[in-house]
Each structure stands twice: as structure tokens, then as C-alpha cells.
Write a structure and sequence with these properties.
The protein contains 19 helices and no strands. By secondary structure, the chain is mainly alpha-helical.
């Protein structure tokens, strides 16, 4: 597909995918700022506010791999347009919700559409940019947009709520989605697996159940306690679903994704790095917003302004990381990224109400640098390490790992803060210290995994898996080792 496309059209495709993913990624964080306004307007309880966020996350996590697989089979441009239309419809319905229950239900509709966008956008990019170095740069730009959207969520949400109402955070999605649909029809050629794979409803159902239960347990563990019967039961059932999935898939001629592929150290490490780095991101956004508003007394909009250094740096660093991956392989970006996450967290382990603004800005700058560097090699390794026929599934696995990481980061940090019983002020600032030490550990984990997954021995496991599964061409040298 990529050989038939001009450079201008490939860039247009990248811009369309980035526009769509910007809309969906913003939705992951923008709603949090509007929760107080939603509570006041609809009379929502704390539990209902929690599910306003959690319903979207759980459904999105459960459907990502299914949506990626459907796109590979039915056509990526087609599924992408359906996802945009569904997300737009869900957003419109959310803006009209008259009760918390309806808002939660409409958020689930949003998530169904959102699940068709993230992995499918990545598989469209993967098929449009066939040159490994050019693809790495494109994925770097995409990663920058994702990082920017995560950080800008509180700022954009605060501005929209202040200018209009909480319903405005959903209104804004509708015209963007309509424009994106028109652009997809104009610029994005259809692509699908060369030989359609047979559906795997049992495997897909097991994955959906496992991911939904795991995500639910991670999110609810912070509120209900990690040892509560409901949370423990979800962990057990999720493990049972995955235990059933692996032998079932091993017996299929055309599995949803070959279990043997996880014997590749780089691919498996990419999944773990995604979880670790996005645990750091989820925890960072949660604890930073809590500290700035609860300890320093800033408004949601002011708190968003404080995070701009992180957003801007992530946006700039990600394309640079993509170029670095294309020419030097994944190791430099992963090590620099993990070091940035660890260093910024270390800078904040002594946080107080009176910490200088300049010190905060410097720490947020370093965090943005680290996150911007680490995101592109995750995606590039996961997608480039799969054959084109499974690009959607590979992107879905990477996206699911990110989502699980964010949920885990919020759950862990939330548990620490909730257990302290601290509401505001200097004691709240002191409570965040333990959170920053945990995020520092996430950065160290990224460094260790980045080093371990890019050795010659580790890269040899990727080549061995490719040869065993007759997928050797799916591992371009530039994607993992550098040109």
C-alpha cells in the first residue's frame, strides 16, 4: 500500500490519524476536570462519578483487540469510519444526559467507538509507511500527539467548563469526528489482511473477559481494597480466562494472536514497558492534579497551565525519539525515556506546599522529555514486530497495555492518598512522596527492560520466533536494531 502513495498523501493520512487519536486521547483525561460540575448539575454520587470515568475505561480495554482484529479482516478505513461515527454519537448522547445513569451508559457507547480508533489508526500508519525509518518517524509524531493530549486534558477541560458547561467537553467531539470521517473517505485507501483470517469468537471473548475483569479489578482495587472479595474474585476470573485462552489458541490453526509470539523478548518487553511507562503517566497526572488543586489551591484551569511544560516537551520529544529509533534502534530512546521518568519523580519526592514554581516546571519538563522519548519505541516495536496481517492486533495489544498502565497508576496513587485520609495542605503534599517513589521505580523498570530487550540475544529471540512462525520478514532490521 505504501509504495502506491505519494509522500503528501502519507502525511495527510498521518494527520488524519493524529486528529482522530487526539480527540479520543483527550477524552481519557478531560472528563476528570468536569466531574465536580457533573455532580452539581446531575446530583451524582461519588460512586456514579467514578463510573463516569471507569465505564469508558473498562469497555475500551475489553474491546481493543477485537476491534483491531475486525479492522484487519473487514477493512481498516471502513472500521475507522464506523468508530468515528460511533464515538461522535456517544459524545452527542453524553451531552444530552439527564441523569448519572444515562451518562454512564452513553460513556460506554463512546468507548465502543473509541476502541475502533486507536489500534486501527496505528495499523493504518503501519501500512501507509512501509519504510522502517519513515514509519518510526511517523509513529514518533503520533506518540507526541498522544502525550500532548494526555497532558492537555485538564487544561482543555477546565477551559470548556469555565466557558460553557460540562456538556461542552462532549459537544466539541462531534464536529471533529464529522470532519475526520470526510477526510478518511478522501485520503485513506482501504487496507486489510491479504488473506482474511477466520474469526476466533471464543478467543476474542476470553481476551475481552480477561481484560475487562483485570481493568475493573485494578480500578476498583483502589476504592474497595485489594483484598476485597469482588476485587480478588475479578483477579482470579481474569487469570482463569487467560489460562483458558493460551491452550485454546495454541490448538488453533489461525489463532487471534499466536501465543508463541510472546517468546520474543522485544515484543514481550514492549508490553511491559508500556505498562510501566503509562503507570507513571497515569500516576503523574492524578497526583499532580491533586497536589496542585488540593495542596496549592489552584483552579482546574490553572493546574492545567502548570502541566504545559510536560505537554510541550512530550510533543517535541516524541518525533525526535521516532527519528532516533529509525536510525539507532529502540535502546537509546528507552534508556533516555526511563531516565527522564525516574529523574523527574526523584525531583518531586520532597514536595511541599512551598516548593518553588521553577522547580515544579523543571520536574514537569523532565517528565515530559522522558515520556515523549519512551512512547514511540513501544509502539514501533509492537507494530513493526508483527506481520501486516496482524498489525491491528499488535497495535491493540500495545494500546491495551497503555490503558492498563494508566488504570494501574491511578489506582495505586489513589490508594496511597485515600489511605492517608489527608484532604489538603502540607500533609497532602507530604502524602505524595510515596507516590513519587513508586513512579521513580517505574522509570527504573523502563531502563532495565529497555536494556534487556535490545541485546543481541534478545533480538535473536525475535528472529527465532519469526522463523518458527514463518514471519521473519515482519522484523525489519531498522525497527529494532537501527540502520
Amino acid at each position: 500500500m505504501g509504495d502506491a502513495l505519494s509522500r503528501e498523501r502519507r502525511l495527510a493520512i498521518l494527520a488524519i490519524c493524529c486528529l482522530s487519536i487526539l480527540m479520543v486521547s483527550l477524552d481519557n483525561t478531560i472528563v476528570n476536570v468536569a466531574l465536580p460540575a457533573i455532580r452539581a448539575d446531575l446530583g451524582a454520587s461519588v460512586s456514579q462519578l467514578q463510573w463516569t470515568v471507569d465505564a469508558y475505561t473498562v469497555v475500551l480495554a475489553g474491546l481493543l483487540i477485537l476491534s483491531g482484529s475486525l479492522a484487519d479482516r473487514l477493512g481498516r478505513a471502513r472500521v475507522f469510519q464506523v468508530g468515528l461515527a460511533t464515538f461522535s454519537l456517544g459524545s452527542l448522547l453524553c451531552s444530552t444526559a439527564a441523569s448519572p445513569g444515562w451518562l454512564i451508559a452513553f460513556r460506554m457507547v463512546q468507548a465502543v467507538g473509541g476502541s475502533m480508533l486507536n489500534p486501527v489508526a496505528m495499523s493504518i500508519i503501519r501500512n501507509a509507511f512501509e519504510d522502517p525509518a519513515e514509519r518510526a518517524r511517523a509513529i514518533g509524531i503520533w506518540g507526541g500527539v498522544v502525550g500532548l493530549s494526555m497532558a492537555l486534558g485538564p487544561l482543555v477541560g477546565g477551559a470548556l467548563v469555565a466557558a460553557s458547561s460540562w456538556r461542552a467537553i462532549f459537544w466539541v467531539n462531534v464536529p471533529v469526528a464529522v470532519l475526520a470521517i470526510a477526510l478518511v473517505r478522501r485520503f485513506v485507501p482501504e487496507s486489510r489482511a491479504a488473506r482474511p483470517r477466520r474469526p476466533d469468537p471464543v478467543g476474542q471473548a476470553l481476551v475481552m473477559v480477561a481484560l475487562a475483569l483485570l481493568t475493573y479489578a485494578i480500578i476498583e482495587g483502589g476504592a474497595s481494597g485489594w483484598g476485597s472479595p469482588a476485587v480478588a474474585g475479578c483477579f482470579v476470573l481474569a487469570a482463569a480466562a487467560m489460562a483458558a485462552f493460551l491452550p485454546y489458541e495454541a490448538r488453533r490453526a489461525e489463532p487471534l494472536i499466536a501465543p508463541g509470539f510472546f517468546r520474543s523478548v522485544p515484543f514481550s518487553a514492549a508490553t511491559l514497558i508500556a505498562i510501566a511507562s503509562f503507570t507513571a503517566l497515569g500516576g503523574f497526572l492524578f497526583v499532580t492534579n491533586l497536589y496542585l488543586q488540593g495542596a496549592r489551591g489552584l483552579s482546574p484551569f490553572q493546574a492545567g497551565l502548570y502541566t504545559l511544560p510536560m505537554a510541550a516537551t512530550a510533543f517535541v520529544a516524541a518525533p525526535l525519539s521516532g527519528r532516533l529509533v529509525g536510525h539507532r534502534g529502540a535502546r537509546p530512546s528507552l534508556v533516555l525515556g526511563g531516565a527522564g521518568l525516574a529523574a523527574s519523580s526523584a525531583m518531586l519526592t520532597g514536595l511541599s506546599v512551598h516548593t518553588a514554581t521553577a522547580w515544579l516546571m523543571a520536574a514537569y519538563f523532565v517528565f515530559g522529555l522522558g515520556f515523549g522519548m519512551v512512547n514511540p519505541p513501544i509502539t514501533n516495536t509492537a507494530v513493526s514486530g508483527m506481520p501486516p496481517a496482524q498489525a491491528g492486533v499488535a497495535a491493540a495489544i500495545a494500546s491495551t497495555s497503555r490503558l492498563v498502565g494508566i488504570s494501574l497508576g491511578v489506582a495505586i496513587v489513589g490508594t496511597i492518598v485515600a489511605a492517608s485520609g489527608v484532604a489538603s495542605g502540607e500533609r497532602l503534599a507530604a502524602t505524595t512522596h510515596a507516590c513519587w517513589w513508586i513512579l521513580l521505580g517505574c522509570g527504573i523498570a523502563v531502563i532495565a527492560l529497555g536494556l534487556a530487550s535490545t541485546t543481541e540475544r534478545a533480538l535473536g529471540t525475535a528472529r527465532a520466533v519469526g522463523a518458527r512462525l514463518d514471519l521473519a520478514p515482519a522484523w525489519p532490521r531498522g525497527a529494532l536494531e537501527g540502520d
